[in-house]
Amino acid sequence: MTEKIAIAVTLAAFIFLILRLVRQKRSRKKYEAEVNAWKLRLEMDLSQAKEERNRLLDALGDAFIIVDSKENIRFANSAAQELFRGRALIGRPVREAFLDPRLADALLKCLDTGKPVQSRVVLSQQTSPLGAMENRGQNAWIIDAAPHSDTPDGNRNTRVVIRDVTAEHQLDQIRRDFVANASHELRTPLAIINGYIENLLEDGMVEEPDMARRFLSIMQRHTERISRIVEDMLVISRLESGEASAINIEPFKLRSCVNDVLERLESVIRNQEAIVSVDFLNDQAMIQGDRFYWTQVLFNLVENALKQNPHAGLKVNIGCEDTPDLIRLWVSDNGIGIPSVDLPHIFRRFYRVEKHHSQLEIKGTGLGLSIVKRAIEAHGGTITVTSVPGRETKFLMTIPRERE
Ligand code: ADP
Q1: Distance between CA atoms of 388 and 369, rounded to whole angstroms?
Q2: Mean pLDDT score of the chain, rounded to an integer?
């Protein structure tokens, strides 16, 4: 009897053990399945987060690069790939990828010291990241490098942002040139005036009325030149300010503008015996614009033609064609023309074909065509020039009727 009981207990214990084992196995399987599901979800979350991060970094306009402690590139956003077009970046040492050592300098210094470094680099066309593909001449970059994160293996990553500041750099350069040129242009007449004042006061010329009058009239011409330069610079700066108030748009008849200009230049035209013809297909052609600037544009162009050709018989033609979409306006002459080497520079501030200026021959400020170009651009138009010396020098303006 006791034997039977013992067998039964052992059997029960055995069954219990088996049941427990089965249950344990089942719950382990369940646990494993759960862990795998978590793993999968985590991986998916991670890759989604990575994709999202890359999308965000790709949306950055600036090049963004992550470099590891061994100076190898680990990540480059699409702006960076675009910047170093044609070169594989990932896995590549920085020195190799950046070509010009000046670009890599800030980054290497940051890697070296572990401190943020910012630097501004100006490169010539040849040494730019784009190399021969760069078409903007000198280009400028701000390199901003800073330690980014420590990886699980204890290595430090560094992030670099490379910002293209070429446009700002060029604008700065234009401003610097403008100030330098303006000072130079103003210094010449000032020095002349100064010289005459010295003659008058220190050399006693003031006692000789005829001489003094002659000196004063020369000084007057040079002061007028200074005021003209200052006046022109103010006009340019107003037009370049981009302020809506700089131009006052109202409809007016272009022909009436031409009449004003011809009236103002009447005595020069007569004295030079120039022949001015006006070809307007439509005398009533209207334009939406600032009448003050359009008069100045036409005045500068016609005056230039007369000024550059002070001989009898010069032919000047002012013409206009207007369509529902645009207005074409031109001023042409058959004078000495503009050499082809000078044509691309002719609208630059203070640019003149004949560089030497004697004090007796004060022709212009070199700002006339700059004003013309900026005034036309402020109206949404464009101006081009073609010149066959002795045959035809033509300034052609195209102005859309609808301003953007
Ligand atoms: P400026 O005040 O010297 O006239 P502009 O900017 O008006 O300055 O013109 C720049 C230069 O372009 C002039 O110095 C002149 O050499 C040249 N130029 C302009 N218009 C003509 C033209 N119709 N014929 C020949 N040369 C011209």
Answers
A1: 18
A2: 88
Pocket of ligand 1 (CB under 6 A): 300, 304-305, 308, 333, 335-338, 346, 351-354, 363-370, 393
- Cβ atoms of 382 and 398 within 8 Å: the answer is yes
Neighbour count for residue 327 (Cβ, 10 Å)? 22
Decide which of 242 and 260 is more confident: 260
What's the whole-number mean pLDDT along residues 244-272?
A: 92
The mean pLDDT of 27-31, rounded to a whole number, is 91
**Whether the predicted pLDDT of 357 surpasses 90:** no
Contact between 151 and 157 (Cβ < 8 Å): yes
The DSSP 8-state label assigned to residue 88 in this structure reads -
Q: What mean pLDDT do residues 298-326 have?
A: 94
Q: CA torsion 180→230→302→322, rounded to 10°?
A: 90
- What are the pLDDT digits (tens) for 51-92? 988 888 888 889 999 998 888 999 999 888 888 876 788 998
Q: If you take atom 22 of ligand 1, which residue's CA is the nearest one? A: 305
Distances (CA, A) of 82 to 100, 121, 127, 387: 17, 19, 16, 40
| Other Cβ atoms closer than 10 A to 370 | 24
CA pseudo-torsion sign 173, 175, 180, 182: positive
Ligand 1 atom nearest the C-alpha of 351 is 10
Q: How confident is the model at residue 132 (pLDDT cuts 50, 70, 90)?
A: low
Q: Is 0.70 surpassed by the pTM of this model?
A: no
CA 259 / ligand 1 centre spacing (Å): 22
Residues constituting the chain? 404
Distance of CA 325 to the CA centre of its chain: 28
In sequence order, what E strands does 313-365 have? 315-322, 326-333
CA dist 399 and 389 (Å) reads 26
